[in-house]
Amino acid sequence: MAGKLTRLQRYYLYYTGTFLAFIVLLAWLEHLGMSPRWIGYAFLFFTISMYAVIGIASRTTDVSEYYVAGRRVPALFNGMATGADWMSAASFIGLAGTLYLSGFQGLAYVIGWTGGFVLVALLLAPYLRRFDQYTIPDFLGARYGGRAIRLVAVGAAILASFVYVVAQIYGVGVITSRFVSLQFEIGVFVGLAGILVCSFLGGMRAVTWTQVAQYLILIVAYLTPVAILSYNVTGNPLPQLVYGEVLERVARLEDKLFNMPDEIHVRQLYQEQADLYARKIMQLPRSLTLEREQISQRINELKASDSQMKDIVMLERQRRELPHDPDQARIRWENAMFAAVDRAKAPIHHAEAFPGDTVEEQNVLRINFLALVFCLTIGTAALPHVLIRYYTTPSVRQARESVFWSLLFILLLYVTAPAYAVFAKYEVLTHLVDIPLAKLPSWVMAWSKVGLVNIEDINGDGILQLAELSLNPDVIVLATPEIAGMPYVISGLVAAGGLAAALSTADGLLLTITSALSHDVYYRIMRPGASTQLRLVISKSLLLVVAVLAAMVAAEKPGTILSMVAWAFSIAGSAFFPALVLGIFWERATRAGALAGMLVGLSLSIYYILRVEFDGIPLLGISGLQMAPWFQVQSTSGGVFGVFAGFATIIIVSLLTKPDPEAAAFLRTIRFRREGP
Amino acid sequence: MAQCDLYWRRTRRITLFLLMIWIGATFGLIWFARELNEFTLFGFPLGFYGAAQGVLLVYLGIIWLYNRWMRKLDAEFGVDSE
Q1: Residue-wise burial string across A327-361, b where 16 or more C-beta atoms lie within 10 A, e elsewhere
Q2: Shortest CA distance to A598 belongs to which of A164, A160, A167, A125?
C-alpha cells in the first residue's frame, strides 16, 4: 500500500503523523502539569513554524510558479488547498454558532456555500483551466478585449477581497488573544507574520502547499471535539449520523420548556423592559435629564441619611455612566431595546423551517432564505481567490476532478457544523436551563467573564430561564471542548484549527489582490515589457504593502468592516458571474455588453446594500436615504438584483452592439482542444 | 469543425441537465422544507435533513456525474488527452 503512494502523499502523511504525535505529546505534558497558557504557545509556535518550513521550502523565482504553482498541483491536493482557501475563520468559528442561534434558517449558509461549487464545476473551472493564464481579469481581458474591462475586474476583485482579508486577520487577533492571552494588536501582527511566511517567498506555490497543511489541521481540529461530545451523549463518535436522534430529544425538551410559566413570565418582563426603552427614546431629550435628576436626588437622599458609602459610590458611578448627550442615549437605548425585544420573542423550534403565523409571513421567510442561498451560491462561484485555484492543476480533467475533491473536503466541515449546533443546544437545554444559577457548569462562568455568554436573572428567582441566557455565536465552537469536559489540549487544538482556517484564507486573498495589481495593472497595462525579475520584485513588494495595510486596518477593530464581509458575495457575484458565464457560453456577448453589465451589476448591488443598510453619511451631512427593501429581501442578499441586472444588461447591450469577430476563435480554444495540456 | 460543434453541443446538454437538477434540489425541494418536516428520516425531520445534508450530497453527486460523463466525452473525441 505504502509503495503506491506518491511522494507528495507520503510527505503529507508524515506531516499529519507528526502533528498527531505533537498533540499526544502535549496531552501527556498537560497531564504532568503544563499550564494552559504554555499549551497555547506551543500550538501557536509549532503550527506557524511548520507553515514557515513549507513556505520557505517552496520559495521560487519563476513567474508561473509564483502565480499558479507551476500548474503541477494534483486534483486531490488542489481540492484540499481549495477547502482551506475557501473555509475562513467565519466558517470555522462562526457557522456553528449561527446555526445554533437561527436553527433551520442558518442552513442557507450551508447550502449556498456548497452549492457554489456546483456552478464552479459546471460553468467555470474547466474553461478557466483550458484558458491557461494567470488571473480572472486575464480571462475577461482575453475574451472581451480592451483595458477597461480588465481594470473594472481588478477593482471588483480588490473590493471583494480586501475587506475579507481584514476580517481574517481580525480573526487571528481574536483567536490568539483568547487562547494565548496575547494582546489583540500583538495577535494581529503574529497573524501577519504567519501569512507572510506562507506567501512572501513562494507565492501561489508556497500558498498551495501550506494550505494543504492547514486544511489537515483545521479538519482534525473541527471534528475531534464534536466527535468526543457525540460519543459522550449518544455512544457513537460520528456526530453527522446520529444527531437526528439528539435533535428529537432537543425538540421534546423545547416542547416542555417553551411554555413553562416561568419562561413566559421572563419573556413578558423583557417585553416590558423593551417598552420602557421605547418610551424613553420617544421622550428624548427630556427623559435623559429626568433620569439624571432622579439619580442625583437618590444620591442626596442617601447622603442625608447615614447609609453605606458603598451604595452612594455605586449610584454615582451609575450617574457617570449615563449617556452624555441625547444622540448617544438614543444609540445606546436602541441597542438595549433591540436586545430586550430579541429576548422577549417566543423561541423557535430548532428544526422548524420558515416559522411564521400566517402563510404570508412564511413566504417572506421562504423568499429571503432562497434569495440568500442564491446570493451565496453565485458569490461563492465568483470569488476570484477560489477561482484562481483551478488554474493550478496539470490538466482540464484534473481541474474538474479537483472541484469534486474541493466540495468533498468542504462538506466534511459543513455537514458537521449543524451537528455542533444541535449538540450544543442539547447541552444548554439539559445542563443550563431550569438550573439554579449557583450550580451552572464552570464553562458558563469562564466564558461570561470574556463577555461571550451573558446571563441576567431578570425575574430574580435564582434559576436560569432560557430567555435569560444569551450566547455569542463564536462561543459554540470555542467552548465545546470544555462543555464535553475535555483537557485543555483540545481547546488548544481548536485554536490552532481556527488559526489555520483564517491564515489559509488570508493567504489566498492576499495573493489575489497582489496578482491583480502586479500582473493585471502593472504588467499587462503599465509595463508590458517588464522583465520577469522585475515583475516578481513588484509582486513581492506589493504583497508586503497590502498585508501590512490589512493588518493595520484589522488592528483598529473596525466593526463595520466585519459586517461588510457578508457583502463580498454580492459584490463578487454581481460583478463577475454574469460576465464570466455569458463570456463562456454565449458567443454573441460583446465587450460593451460585458463592461456595461459588470458596472450595472456591481453598482446596483452596492446601491441596494447601502440604501437598505444606512440612513445617511454623517460625514457629508446627508441623511434620510434609507429605503424599504424590495420584495423584503435583506441587504446581505442584495446581490440577487445585481446578478439579474448584470445578466440582463450584458444581453441587451450585446445585442445592440456589433458582434465581436474574435470571440468565435477564442471560444474554440477554451471549449474544445485536441492537443495535450 | 463539425467535431468541435458536436462536442460542444453535447457538453452543453450535460451541463444544462445537471444545472436543472441543481435548481430542482436547491430551490424546488427547499421551498417545501416546512411541509417535508412532517416526515422523519433517521430521526431527522425530513426538511431539516434535506437542507443540512441531503442537498449537499446531491451537489456532490452532480459533480461526480459531470466528471464521469465529461471523461467519456473527452475520450470519444480525443480532447485533452494527457
Answers
A1: eebbeebeebbebbbebbeeeebbbbbbbeeeeee
A2: A160
Query: What is the C-alpha end-to-end distance of chain B, expressed in Å?
Result: 22
Please indicate whether, in this complex, the C-beta atoms of A118 and B59 are within 8 angstroms of each other: yes
For the beta carbon of residue A522, count every other beta carbon within 10 angstroms.
18
Contact of B52 with chain A, judged by CB distance below 8 Å, is answered with yes
Is A483 a residue whose pLDDT tops 90?
Answer: no
Q: Decide: helix, strand or coil at residue A115.
A: helix
User: What is the model's pTM?
Assistant: 0.89
> Among A353, A412, A409, which residue's Cα sits nearest to residue B51?
A353
A103 has a pLDDT exceeding 60: yes
Across the interface, of B43, B49, B64, the residue whose CB is closest to A404 is: B64
Alpha helices in B1-82 (DSSP H): 2-23, 30-31, 33-36, 46-49, 55-77
Q: Among A370-384, A513-527, A577-591, whose mean pLDDT is lowest?
A: A513-527
User: Could you count the other beta carbons within 10 Å of the beta carbon of residue A71?
Assistant: 19
CA distance B8 to chain A (A): 7
Extract the C-alpha cell encoding B38.
412532517
Chain A hits for B45, CB-CB cut-off 8 Å, are: 247, 351
| pLDDT category of residue A665 using cuts at 50, 70 and 90 | confident
Mutate to test the interface with B, among A118, A365, A425 (most CBs of B within 10 A): A118
Q: What's residue A619's pLDDT?
A: 59
Contact residues, chain B, for A674 at CB < 8 Å: 78-79
The three cell numbers locating residue A585: 457560453
Q: Which pLDDT tens digit goes with each residue over A166-205?
A: 888 888 888 888 777 788 888 888 888 888 888 888 889 9
Inter-chain touch B34–A362, beta carbons under 8 Å: yes
Predicted local confidence at residue A190, as pLDDT: 84
Closest chain A residue to the Cα of B35, Cα to Cα: A353
End-to-end Cα separation, chain A, in angstroms: 30
**Residues 58-77 of chain B whose Cβ lies under 8 A from any Cβ of chain A:** 59-60, 62-64, 66-67, 70-71, 74, 77
Chain B residue with CA closest to A353: the answer is: B34
The minimum CA-CA distance between B20 and chain A, rounded to whole Å, is: 11
Average pLDDT score, chain A: 87
A110-124, A320-334, A443-457, A625-639: the lowest-pLDDT one: A625-639
Stretch A421-438: mean pLDDT: 88
Strands, E assignment, A134-183: none
Chain B contact for A238 (CB, 8 A cutoff): no
CB contact under 8 A, B67 and A401: yes
- Pairwise CB contact (< 8 Å): A104 & B56: no
| A366, A395, A674: residue with CB nearest B31 | A366
Per-residue model confidence (pLDDT) at position B81 = 59
Q: ipTM surpassing 0.90, yes or no?
A: yes
- For A202, the grid coordinates are 513562494
Report all structural domains of chain A as residue ranges with CATH numbers, in order of start.
2-234+366-421+487-671 (1.20.1730.10), 261-361 (no CATH)
How confident is the model over A349-353, as a mean pLDDT? 86
Q: Does residue A91 contact residue A106 with C-beta atoms inside 8 Å?
A: no
